[in-house]
Design brief:
By secondary structure, this protein is mostly beta strands. The chain is 0% helix and 55% strand.
């Protein structure tokens, strides 16, 4: 199931809410739905004309015993 994400303008990555992503000081950060904060360092990020982004390869965020694994394609989240 795809979930629409939201690009936001923030100066602090701790301000990201579920489903949001932002470019802060030249680096992309994201918070997939139901997940923790992730940094897209090492990912290829393409900015589209409508302001959405696509990050590749897939995004994997681990925290404790939980994880989120999926994709951000044209601003839409999809878990694996």
């Amino acid at each position: 199931m795809k979930i629409k994400g939201t690009r936001v303008e923030v100066t602090d990555c701790s301000r990201l809410n579920d489903g949001e992503y932002a470019k802060i000081n030249g680096e992309w950060y994201c918070k997939p739905p139901g997940s923790h904060l992730g940094r897209l360092k090492g990912h290829k990020v393409v900015e589209h004309e409508d302001g959405t982004i696509t990050a590749s390869p897939s995004i994997l965020i681990n925290w404790g015993e939980k994880q989120w694994h999926g994709y951000l394609i044209r601003g839409e989240w999809e878990s694996c």
